[in-house]
Amino acid sequence: MSMAVWIAVALLGGIGAVTRFALDAAIDSRVDRDFPYGTLAINASGSLLLGGLTGLALSGNALLLAGTATLGSYTTFSTWMLETHRMREDARFLPAIANVVVSLAVGLAAAELGRTIGAHV
Q1: pLDDT band at 32, cuts 50/70/90?
Q2: I need a surface site. Which of 3, 22, 65, 110 has the fewest CB within 10 A?
Q3: Helix axis angle, 77-89 relative to 37-56, nearest 10°?
C-alpha cells in the first residue's frame, strides 16, 4: 500500500469519525435520550452505504477507502454494544433487547437495500 493510500485512510477515517460524532449529537439533541436513536441512525445509514458499495462491486483501494476507512470509522459497533450494556446494567431490559433486535433488523434490511440499489446503478 502506498503512502498516499495510508494518508487517505487516515484522513477519510477522521472524516467518518467526526461525521458520526456530529450526527449523533444532532440527533440526540432532538430526541429523547432513553433510546440510542443516534447510534441506530448512524449504523443504519452506514449499513445502507456499505451495502451500496457491495452492490457496486468496488474492490481494491476504492473499497478500502470508501468502505473500511470512511464508513468503517463512521459506523459504530462498540458504541452500540456499550449503550446496550448500559441499558442492561440500569435494569432497562426491554430497551436493551429492542436495541439489539431493531438494530440488527434495520441494519440487515438497510444493507440489502443498499446492495440492491448499488447493483442497479
Answers
A1: confident
A2: 3
A3: 150
pLDDT, tens digit, 9 for 90 and up, residues 34-72:
899 999 999 999 999 999 999 999 999 999 999 999 999
d(CA 36, CA 99): 8
Amino acid code (one letter) for 20: R
67-103 pLDDT, tens digit per residue, is 999 999 999 999 999 999 999 999 999 999 999 999 9
Helix (H) or strand (E) holding 26: helix 3-28
φ, ψ at 42 (rounded to 5°): -65, -50
Inter-residue contact 23 to 40 (CB < 8 Å): no
Judge whether 69 and 16 are in contact, CB under 8 Å. yes
Q: Any idea what DSSP says for residue 68?
A: I
Contact between residue 24 and residue 39 where contact means Cβ atoms under 8 Å apart: yes
Sign of CA dihedral 11, 39, 87, 96: negative
